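Q: Hi! First time asking for a complex rather than a single chain. Here are the components, and I think there are two in total. Is that enough to go on?
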Amino acid sequence: MAKKIVIIGGVALGPKAACRARRLDPDAEITLIDKDTLISYGGCGIPYFVSGDIANPEDLYSTVFHAKRDPEFFDVYKRVKVMTGTEALDIDRKAKTVRLRDLNTGEESEISYDVLVLGTGASPFVPPVEGFDLPGVKCVANMHQAIDIKSQIASGEVGSAVVVGGGAIGLEMTEAMSALWGVETTLVEMCDQVLPQAMGPEFTRMIENHLEENEVKVMTSTRVLRILGDEDGVTGVLTDKGEIPCDMVIFGAGVRPNNALAKKAGLAIGQFGGIVVDARMCTSDRNIYAGGDCVEIRNQITGAPTYLPLGSLANREGRVIGTNIAGGNERFDGATGTFCLKAFDLSVATSGLTLEQAKAAGFDAVEGLSAQADRAHFYPGHDWLFIKLIADRTTRRVLGIEALGSAGDAVKARVDAVAALLPFHVDLDAISNLEVGYAPPFASAMDVVNAAANALKNIIDGLSNPVEPRDFLAEVLPDESRLILDVRSAKQAVPMQEIYGKRWLNIPQDELPVRYDELPRDKELYVLCNTGLRSYESQVLLRAKGFTNLKNIQGGFLVARKLDPSFGTKK
Amino acid sequence: MAKKIVIIGGVALGPKAACRARRLDPDAEITLIDKDTLISYGGCGIPYFVSGDIANPEDLYSTVFHAKRDPEFFDVYKRVKVMTGTEALDIDRKAKTVRLRDLNTGEESEISYDVLVLGTGASPFVPPVEGFDLPGVKCVANMHQAIDIKSQIASGEVGSAVVVGGGAIGLEMTEAMSALWGVETTLVEMCDQVLPQAMGPEFTRMIENHLEENEVKVMTSTRVLRILGDEDGVTGVLTDKGEIPCDMVIFGAGVRPNNALAKKAGLAIGQFGGIVVDARMCTSDRNIYAGGDCVEIRNQITGAPTYLPLGSLANREGRVIGTNIAGGNERFDGATGTFCLKAFDLSVATSGLTLEQAKAAGFDAVEGLSAQADRAHFYPGHDWLFIKLIADRTTRRVLGIEALGSAGDAVKARVDAVAALLPFHVDLDAISNLEVGYAPPFASAMDVVNAAANALKNIIDGLSNPVEPRDFLAEVLPDESRLILDVRSAKQAVPMQEIYGKRWLNIPQDELPVRYDELPRDKELYVLCNTGLRSYESQVLLRAKGFTNLKNIQGGFLVARKLDPSFGTKK
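A: Yes, that's all I need. Here is the structure of the assembled complex.
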């Protein structure tokens, strides 16, 4: 008898599992159920639809060959029966049935399964502040909301907007509204940085500055207290830093797994509210599988559960489920949380743990920041690429990587290559010699990712005694008693000496071997060059000459200026 | 007493080893010796200097901060003594001395060492054909030759040129001369494809076609018999396919390791003529280290020795040597041969073994070819990215990857991520779930590299019965008895039916479930769509309906047309 496969949820995981199962089992009866009328769309494309980069909503649920992925498409091409506008109310695990309700007619029915797949996704988190339900307060959880937002913006009704939440969706929506449509946009984030889950504070500060350069107002460490307005719409957002007038509020403050159905059925639920699954993506009921935004998976760095609502994972998990429900045996071993994002003309990518996350997980974590050209420095059109590596001091195990630059694919390339190794728990030597391809249009002979590993090894080995650029700006620079040794040229140092006076010392690197005796030996010296490389070499030289109290400013002038565009322009 | 470190060879490996050793050992006496007057230059940048992308030769031996890396620079900044114009004649391993000759004065001298490093590099291979020493016959082994070539081209003396050798240097020089300078260039390659060491024949055919689109004449399977001309210069090249008139001949026919000094000293030399080194980059003499283009290293796929003269490896090996000669203990475990190249508007990247190399190494090798968009297919500006994976059928171990596309960094990103895993001998499941970053500006949710692994797994599992696009073009298409089933739209199939007649069947994929009975069951059917995806699905459907004799044309119409631009335009 044909196996009865019932799949609840039709955005990413569900359709993928359905199609894979169909290809392996030509006889199975496969039914895909979704509350919505639209299914199988590229939800991550919503910001690009709102921005106008993607003209029509259909583009997000069409194949490469412009076939609309609607119920008829699934019926004809995939031989999968689709029931849209249908809500799953209850699972009877003993009888192996699901009770359904037709959302148009209210009629209830029952469907039986041999194997059930839950791909119920996640819902946007909206903090329960007063006014959260006013018209003009939006989320971007599905296509209908996206179409609604875009039509309002396109009709010229929205002069200004507040985006609440500086995660990926928040940032992408911020760009979407301000870049093309010219909506005056304010980004409000509760934490002291954007992308607080994904990255440490340096690169996010660079993004924040870049957003400001693009006319976006960024308010971090800001809490939303109330949405202002009435039944005619939103008039503003009240925060603990004051009122922001606006015509629209968009919540991008993270999502929560849709676990109600699983919970009611008594399936195991984890600490983040996600359904618990094993490496075969099977729940605590061996006839029920789950994946995508409604499950927790294993963090491959810490071994602990993690919640990563990402469309890429949903698709890969969906295929594994499709194989397993058709009688196969594939594993999904977890994830390290590889992430990438384009924000105007900058791109960032990251994988693994941030420094703070690594410390919280019990590692003796240390980080190194490197700046190098994204291609051969003699090749035209090269630009700076910044890489941060996080490792454990004792075992030298690599725990995370972050990168930022203007050439997005090149930024992502470095992170993807290191991300591939993170599940193997490699140490820094593996990154020193990581065999990324080399030709001048693509990389330096010693690639920036190799250089970043070498820089962090030097820190761990005590050859480089670093100070974080953010600490340099926040603590060293304001303290008149600290001495900075600038080993760049006199021409570069003079403007700094005009601002910081006598405590800004300057001996160019080439003169250091004969002039080091001019330097005080009893005071801490903060050594600075343009990127941190020559200051490191100078530190090595000075240490050989008996200096003991040296700090190398990681990333040098370049990174400090990117973190604070006013650095070196005024006191 | 200060350790005496002598390093022979000053291009890539030597300077890197010298500088690293200096930073670890402030007291060592470090001497760097080179025959040439120019050192520490980016040799791989030579084609970009010749093309004019890089204006001045100095740019190739300057730092990011425009300091010239000349002997004075090494003396002042690195405290490394440099002896240029100095040839190393002999090594006395017992006395630990090297006999030197000053190439200006002819004067000989001796230098003693505690530890010696050989970074003697490689020399271009010039086949011993008649006329190889005529004026106008060039190599691009060093800066002087590059400057010479560029000045001749710039002065307008060179109307046409022949480049001998379709490896990386040959291809880069071909583009350099034809793109900016408009030199009529013919590329001559002995093998039946360009890049014969690096890639299988599909993607190289695409490159060859792209070169032809850019006015380069490509002659593969062509042997150079003689260089024509006299003491006034070259007038042409005689090949087994006829005479090619030209004003300049450039040899890019590979390099051979400079092993004479090591050989004379009795050091172990390997099967490729490279110096044998262990994982610490130490030769058969424990006081002598070697690296870069003059050594053989371990192929991490096969475990066998390999010869990979690449600047990136030289730099990474140089750092390992620098650490070890200063008393440290680092390893260089070998390489998988990651490679990338830009040719006009196409880029290719590759790592590991080609199908033929894998078979020769004893693997039961099988390959899969996939085509997918390089970013979300709904994101503006996306383009096709082609990936080929090679794996062992029995163990499913991944043995190699090749990629081609127009967005170079994106092409390289996919290969670098897989290359990182090759030394770990992972199987295809690791690539199916490879956690590359996803956002619509960078990738599809199921990235092309994941899709490529899934496609190859389907082949190995017998779900997809592929025919290589090159075999389809060469064997199937010319054979009037073979039937092609085109599952694209009627509109796309009609032009093909006009050319190929009744043997070009057409049932669009959506009609196949109700029309499959129109197809003959007793004949082999070659199923075709645009990329190989819908033809695979159709094959699955037909097999479920009892068809047994099916072949899926890998890469579909798209790849076949890229391999043969005339495919589908005439009989």
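A: Residues 137-253 of chain A form a domain with the FAD/NAD(P)-binding domain fold (CATH 3.50.50.60). Let me know if you'd like any chain examined more closely.
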